[in-house]
Write a structure and sequence with these properties.
Two copies of one chain form a homodimer. Chain A is 51% helix and 16% strand. Chain A has 272 residues and is α/β, with parallel strands linked by helices. Chain A has a five-stranded mixed sheet with strand order 4-5-6-7-8, sandwiched between helices. A three-stranded mixed sheet of chain A has the order 2-1-3.
Chain lengths: 272, 272
């Protein structure tokens, strides 16, 4: 039984993979196994991974695991930070702060050759990083070698300000891009890379820092309003409360629902 | 009276500019002045440069200056080498040969970090150039800093094979990209740059080397057939003759017309 990924590639359906991602989202081993088993019985040849996600989410919903369901939807919610890359940069800056970095966003610096815009400047332990954020708002696109190469060239142009370059993407990188980054010494954080605790989704999940776009109580339009008012994370919603959402132009009913949902997600992410 | 450029920018209509480009395409000073004068009387506020081109071409056609008209259409014919960048790379390789370079296209080389594809390798006077061809198939897009930066990073990765990097684009470059290239020592040839004899269009016009897509006797489909058969220049059509076009799958009538038109263009380009 093969499934079709967002990139259009085919791959054998592997229930372990679905289980792992459910466990990563906070499901118990038992729950994850149950759901993966049920999904395995219901899928068909050529089903898309998006459709599998939808079925798995439905099963979580049926079991009343609302918050878990929301967290499971992390990848898509990060895509929905677009279309521009700016909210993603802001999100990354907040994430890095959680890990003890001092950050500044959208800094313009005079390079050796030209003036350059740096998405995030991050400092920790006496090291200053030039962080290039690469945001794609569709699945199935990998960040490629060219991005890694211009990041390196930008770093060379700005070398007097920085100790290291760091490329952070919301998608996967191509193998070539990963190899290149290693070779020239660019730190690379992207979807599912590096494997384990330091991939983008692990960094996010370990701090329970979810993008505002994960909230189902806000529609597309309301999410856009929130983003343009600088409300980028669920934490911003919980801390700012209903008033902040109202002043962003969101209606009271949606604002109240969003704060309630935000609290639910925050509680769950602290409990696991 | 302002005109709207392909990029969407506005600019004052300047008849000298139209005259210069007509002269560059081979018109006498008198003819160019006449046409520019007539065009100036017929245009309107907010007219697009494309529309101005159409009017000027029409005036050339009325005067029986068919070949000149064809040559005038150079920029668009290069755009039509797309959608893929490969015919443009091939065209550039042929162009560089005309200037005494030894060339190879699409060479894969093992860099210090990763394996890299070089569009054109060009050698002359004991120097080897890594040529990066950047092709856009729409007007109004400038080649930007990122392209210049990844070209430089690619050059650094392949440094042991090459003496210099060379970026050749069919569009204009941004000012930043030009400044960056100068600063890191990348040779840059693009539309209207460097000013005078060494811009892309001057290099092409001085050798009378026109892309096959300039021929009006072939329709879109026939041009595609020609390109995929490796017939990239008008010279290929003239040298190969009707037979070559037939074996590319083009009908006899169109093939005969194309060869006749190709001969016309070649004669004109030699006479001026």
């Amino acid at each position: 039984m093969y499934v079709v990924k967002a990139s259009g590639e085919r791959e054998e359906f592997r229930p372990e993979k679905l289980m792992r991602s459910l466990i990563r989202a906070g499901a118990s081993r038992e729950l994850a196994a149950q759901i993966a088993g049920e999904v395995a019985r219901e899928i068909w040849q050529g089903i898309t991974t998006r459709e599998i996600l939808r079925i798995a989410l439905e099963k979580l919903r049926e079991r009343g695991e609302e918050a878990l369901m929301l967290r499971y939807d992390l990848k898509r919610s990060i895509m929905n930070l677009g279309p521009s890359g700016y909210p993603f940069e802001k999100f990354i800056a907040v994430l890095l702060k959680k890990y003890g970095f001092k950050t500044r966003t959208n800094v313009v610096l005079e390079g050796k050759c030209v003036s350059q815009e740096v998405d995030v400047v991050a400092e920790r332990d006496g090291l200053t990083y030039m962080v290039e954020c690469k945001f794609h708002n569709r699945g199935g696109i990998k960040t490629d070698l060219k991005v890694a190469m211009y990041t390196y060239a930008r770093f060379l142009d700005l070398k007097r300000y920085f100790d290291r370059a760091w490329l952070i993407c919301n998608t996967k990188c191509t193998l070539e891009a990963i190899r290149y980054c290693k070779c020239v010494g660019i730190r690379n954080t992207s979807w599912a890379y590096p494997r384990g605790r330091w991939s983008l989704e692990s960094l996010i999940e370990r701090k329970g820092l979810y993008p505002v776009t994960i909230l189902r109580s806000l529609d597309e339009e309301e999410k856009k309003l929130a983003l343009s008012a600088g409300i980028v994370t669920v934490e911003d919603v919980v801390t700012g409360g209903v008033e902040t959402l109202l002043s962003a132009g969101i209606g009271r009913r949606a604002a109240v629902a969003a704060v309630r949902e935000g609290n639910l997600i925050s509680k769950l992410s602290k409990s696991c």
